[in-house]
Amino acid sequence: MAMLGKRRPRRQASGVSGLQGRQQPRGAPLLRGGGEPASREVTIERLAHDGRGVAHDPDGKTLFVEGALPGERVEAAVHRTRKRFDEAHVREVVAAAPERVAPPCAHYTRCGGCDLQHLALPAQRRHKQAVLRELLARQGIAVDGEPELLAGAGEGYRRRARLGVKVDAQGAIHLGFRARHSHRLVTIDHCTILAPALDALLGPLHHHLASLEAPRQVGHLELVESDQGAVVVVRQLKGHEGDRGRWQAFAAARGVPLAWLTGREAPTLEWLTPPPALSCRVPSARQASGASDLTLGFAPGDFLQANAEVNRAMVSTALAWLGAGEGALAGREVLDLFAGVGNFSLPLADAGASVTAVEGNLAMVDRLADNAAANGLPLLARQADLAQEATAAALLAEARPEVVVLDPPREGAESVARALCAAPVPRVLYVACDPATLARDAARLVHGGYRMTRSAVADMFVHTSHLESMLLFEHPRWQQPQGASPDG
Description:
Elements: H1 11-14, E1 22-23, E2 39-43, E3 46-47, E4 53-56, E5 62-66, E6 73-81, E7 85-95, H2 121-138, E8 148-150, E9 160-167, E10 173-178, E11 185-187, H3 196-199, H4 202-209, E12 218-226, E13 229-236, H5 241-254, E14 258-262, E15 268-271, E16 279-282, E17 294-297, H6 308-321, E18 333-337, H7 345-350, E19 354-359, H8 362-374, E20 380-383, H9 389-399, E21 403-406, H10 414-422, E22 427-432, H11 435-447, E23 451-458, E24 468-474
Parallel strand pairs: 5-7, 8-23, 13-14, 18-19, 18-21, 19-20, 21-22
Antiparallel strand pairs: 1-6, 2-6, 3-4, 4-5, 6-7, 9-10, 9-12, 10-11, 12-13, 14-15, 16-17, 22-24, 23-24
Helix pairs in contact: 2-11, 9-10, 10-11
Enzyme class: transferase
Binding site for S-adenosyl-L-methionine: 305, 338, 343, 359, 385, 407
Binding site for [4Fe-4S] cluster: 105, 111, 114, 191
């Protein structure tokens, strides 16, 4: 629950009945009328989609318990009551589940980042597979067997991160991530999930912030790992000439490229070091024959998957599902929507497909075109607003694709799904960062005549309840006997 721990508006202001509840800070249990702490011993039945344990009190009221695992007996302290359910956290584990492990991070109990570190890694991944199956089942879509699992390392995997900066009333500087269910910053001196090159910068950056004349003008820091090493982007609310020189000296001493993103309304990016040519790699469609990786150039602010290892697995899986290794894409028309800087577009073009790649951000469209040229791949890059169904319909009519690839933001691709139902194509590969909107759009495609044939869960954000997923849909209109050509 994203709003847990955040002060809600009063009932008359919000206009939402039945959702307002009483709340105490985390760790301070709610007191009932007689002064007795609102805690109870319960048995956890299962995990909710967001990773919290689910139990019921003697009256049958549902209780969501943070930090609890299925089968455990815990003393749960209630920190919010609602009309239909209560929210709580574990005060004491009375009987632990076999899957409970010691969290590897010292900041686990305070930092809001990794909410499943108390659950063994294999169990985390089984939970994510179950969440995808359940969300699809609610839409009447059955998954045959377990979704494929695309996973990588459990630590040191995250290649981009945003860290908040705050100066408190006593002048102390905090650099880190938000506390769980709070806007308060937890100072982080070491992060187990950050790529080592980024983790090594946390201490020096915290120390450097204390040397600035105007640290309050720093909103946050963005850290990115590229093929060229770590990069720092300073979100500077207002420029300060003295601190400009200090940041330049820091970058020179640490040997890292550093940029200022300055301004509140329309921030501008300025490199305080020689501007680097940032890039990352994705697998070639011809990797089985020893072909080199493809190189994607990017700039600060461009979308970049946080987990490079899992992203490679996603690209390789997409190519395998679409038959790239068997030459099934050669000469085929492919429409890649929400294409970014070419994460899927370039490998598809490398497989011989005729790719039209569409992205809403014009700067990324330019970089996508540059990436295709740099890798020697023919590709048409276009800018379009894919939230408009008419735009999606026009693209489908013009490209007449045999494969459509979707990799939308969290809002999903509802307008595109509508257009795909009105003008079906043989195959749709849907890559999603939000399983709920994926399930919604999948239901629309299935009701429009498509059949889901493959599914996978990508553990992009290890130790969190967040999951990425991939589904492949086929339309029976183009089903042919084995060996027959789709072109008839």
